[in-house]
Write a structure and sequence with these properties.
With about 200 residues, the protein is α/β, with parallel strands linked by helices. The chain has a single domain, classed as 3-Layer(aba) Sandwich (Rossmann fold), CATH 3.40.50.150. Helices cover about 35% and strands about 20% of the residues. The chain is built from seven helices and nine strands; from the N terminus they run αββαβαββαβαβααββ. The protein has a seven-stranded mixed sheet, sandwiched between helices. Strands 1-2 form a two-stranded antiparallel ribbon. α5 links the parallel β6 and β7. The chain starts with a helix and ends with a strand. The chain binds S-adenosylmethionine. S-adenosylmethionine (SAM) binds next to α3 and β4.
């Protein structure tokens, strides 16, 4: 099996169908979950903003991680509410991540807190670029904005491109507040190549 075949197999047959946390599907590359856990432990955010909740497996995982290796809340946003009940340290906002209404609610909960963002919603380059512009200023210095699924650009999956990696490249021409942290790609098989953005704002 080539690396490309493995990545396609993982995407189609594993990540979308067989990765569960507490029995709930988590649409994630498990290597990335481990790296996110390390980031949370090292940077100690008070709030993790998850854009794109889907079934909620990753939300439940973030909730537990925020109770064990850090201490804080999860703010999850999605167009649709998942079927699961949320734990006591999770807030859910139903809405478009870039609408004025959603942004007002997010700012109210995150402003003044040490925040990090995991953008895993609409992966088109235009949309992710707007999320980077709106949510980037909420990320605390030393914390991360993780733009998920830039793998679509690297793999040149036409149906999904231009995707998050293109958004990141455009964003980084407009700001000095973030740098790509390649050390977070240490497992090589990440779905967020070029997407671990460290806030280096003074
Ligand atoms: C890739 S799934 C999220 C997977 C989830 N983060 C996980 O780890 O299991 C993308 C989700 O983003 C949501 N979504 C798409 N566009 C959105 C938008 N503009 N605002 C908020 N959520 C959006 C979809 O409804 C979908 O549930």
């Amino acid at each position: 099996m080539t690396l490309r075949e493995w990545i396609e197999h993982y995407q189609e047959s594993v990540a979308m169908k067989q990765v569960r946390y507490r029995g709930v599907l988590a649409w994630k590359n498990v290597f990335d979950l481990w790296v996110i856990q390390e980031i949370i432990h090292e940077t100690q955010p008070e709030v993790v903003i998850e854009i794109g909740c889907k079934f909620g497996g990753t939300t439940l995982w973030l909730s537990d991680i925020m109770k064990t290796v850090a201490s804080g809340r999860v703010l999850s946003i999605d167009l649709a509410r998942p079927a699961i009940p949320f734990p006591d340290n999770v807030d859910f906002i139903q809405g478009n991540s870039i609408s004025d209404e959603t942004l007002a609610k997010v700012r109210k909960r995150a402003q003044g807190k040490r925040a990090m963002v995991i953008a895993d919603g609409n992966h088109t380059a235009d949309h992710v670029l707007q999320e980077l512009r709106f949510y980037g200023p909420l990320v605390a210095s030393g914390c991360y904005f993780i733009a998920e699924d830039g793998i679509v650009d690297v793999m040149e999956w036409e149906k999904f491109t231009p995707g998050p990696l293109v958004a990141v490249q455009r964003f980084l021409t407009q700001t000095d507040d973030f740098e790509i942290d390649r050390d977070r790609e240490k497992f090589i098989l990440t779905y967020a190549p070029g997407g671990f953005l460290k806030c280096v704002r003074p």
